[in-house]
């Protein structure tokens, strides 16, 4: 017990003396390029946007894209149990009346596949193609 206490006190003294570089290791983030395609009608009108991001969540990438591209706008709603979900893209909102919602798809080996987590939890990979598609349920 005394040995543990001595170790903790020595560690605390070292942290105060030298700082704490071993506890505050900076993340080495390499910017990645992500392509976003928006499909909002039956005619499959596609609008392409590209964002470079340092890593992180799709929500962060979309926010960066919104700040750098005036033609791209989106809104999210935060559910206390399920987190963020896309509410609208470029002024087009999902609708309970029309049974529509914004589905998020990723291009996996040429096939569009729904992501398995929400926009706030999904981490795009470098050069990934993300499709935001207004979908009917």
From TrEMBL:
<keyword id="KW-0732">Signal</keyword>
<protein>
    <recommendedName>
        <fullName>DUF4430 domain-containing protein</fullName>
    </recommendedName>
</protein>
<dbReference type="InterPro" id="IPR051588">
    <property type="entry name" value="Cobalamin_Transport"/>
</dbReference>
<feature type="signal peptide">
    <location>
        <begin position="1"/>
        <end position="17"/>
    </location>
</feature>
């Amino acid at each position: 017990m005394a040995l543990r206490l001595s170790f903790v006190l020595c560690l605390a003294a070292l942290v105060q003396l030298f700082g704490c570089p071993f506890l505050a290791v900076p993340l080495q983030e390499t910017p990645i390029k992500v392509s976003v395609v928006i499909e909002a009608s039956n005619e499959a009108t596609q609008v392409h946007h590209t964002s470079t991001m340092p890593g992180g969540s799709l929500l962060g990438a979309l926010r960066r894209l919104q700040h750098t591209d005036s033609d791209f706008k989106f809104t999210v709603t935060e559910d206390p149990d399920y987190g963020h979900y896309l509410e609208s893209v470029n002024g087009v909102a999902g609708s309970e009346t029309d049974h529509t919602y914004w589905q998020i798809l990723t291009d996996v080996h040429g096939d569009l596949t729904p992501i398995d987590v929400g926009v706030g939890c999904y981490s795009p990979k470098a050069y990934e193609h993300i499709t935001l598609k207004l979908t009917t349920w």
